[in-house]
């Protein structure tokens, strides 16, 4: 198996994709440091799996003032850390058709939570991962909407498009290092992120989290650095679009626009 890491830090581990992936890592033999805002869920995770396999750290990624203390605390306590998985995110409906009603602060907070804060965390953790004398990995949860936005969630789609652009550049400049840069693109997955639609509706929309996790894991285990589950529209056309996009990026990266 190509994807075998021993100590995984999973930011955004208390619900949805993060919680499901945390369970999968444990089943595959990794030790997981679960990070989230809800202490009771972190405690339940540790109690379920035991302190030898699981630990919990309460941290809100919007707390930029506490970023350095959080990162320093993690790398000091867990020197064997070899995988950082940045998964936390949020989604809200924003009606651009009614610009007078758009909450600009909320718009920017969503982009910050989904893009700026994961970017900050990656920059802070990356030196520690690169310095390790063994293989390491840095993972991001993106979205299919990075390729094609949905009108009712423009801040979310914008943040995920920005994240993909950043991750693509990060992967290219660290190509050949001992740190693998991985992005996961989920489809619509059943989780709390859609609670704004009402829990009864929102949590029943999309692919079950366990099904998504198994499909994503198969690609991770195969060594993929771009894990894509599902498609938007006809799969053949969608994946061909991505192939062309990636080909253009590679040409630019290896030419005058490269590092």
UniProtKB/TrEMBL annotation:
Gene3D superfamilies: NAD(P)-binding Rossmann-like Domain. Signal peptide: none annotated. PROSITE patterns: ADH_SHORT. GO terms for molecular function: oxidoreductase activity. Keywords: NADP, Oxidoreductase. It comes from the Eukaryota. Transmembrane segments: none annotated. Belongs to the short-chain dehydrogenases/reductases (SDR) family. PANTHER family: 5-KETO-D-GLUCONATE 5-REDUCTASE, OXIDOREDUCTASE, SHORT-CHAIN DEHYDROGENASE_REDUCTASE FAMILY (AFU_ORTHOLOGUE AFUA_1G01330). This is NAD(P)-binding protein. It comes from Chaetomium fimeti.
């Amino acid at each position: 198996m190509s994807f075998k890491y021993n100590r995984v830090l999973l930011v955004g581990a208390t619900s949805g994709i993060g919680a499901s992936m945390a369970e999968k890592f444990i089943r595959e033999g990794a030790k997981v440091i679960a990070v989230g805002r809800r202490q009771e869920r972190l405690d339940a995770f540790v109690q379920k799996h035991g302190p030898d396999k699981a630990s919990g750290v309460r941290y809100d990624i919007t707390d930029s003032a506490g970023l350095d203390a959080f990162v320093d605390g993690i790398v000091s306590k867990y020197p064997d850390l070899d995988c950082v998985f940045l998964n936390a995110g949020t989604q809200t409906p924003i009606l651009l058709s009614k610009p007078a009603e758009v909450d600009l602060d909320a718009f920017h907070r969503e982009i910050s939570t989904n893009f700026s804060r994961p970017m900050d965390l990656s920059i802070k953790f990356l030196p520690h991962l690169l310095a390790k004398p063994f293989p390491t990995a840095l993972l991001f949860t993106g979205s299919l909407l990075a390729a094609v936005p949905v009108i009712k969630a423009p801040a979310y789609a914008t943040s995920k498009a920005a994240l993909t652009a950043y991750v693509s550049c990060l992967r290219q400049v660290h190509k050949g290092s001992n740190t693998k840069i991985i992005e996961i693109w989920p489809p619509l997955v059943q989780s709390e992120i859609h609670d704004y639609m009402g829990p009864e509706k929102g949590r029943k929309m999309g692919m079950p989290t366990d099904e998504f996790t198994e499909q994503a894991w198969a690609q991770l285990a195969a060594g993929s650095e771009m894990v894509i589950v599902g498609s938007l529209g006809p799969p053949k056309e969608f994946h061909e679009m991505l192939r062309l996009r990636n080909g253009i990026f590679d040409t630019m990266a290896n030419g005058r626009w490269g590092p």
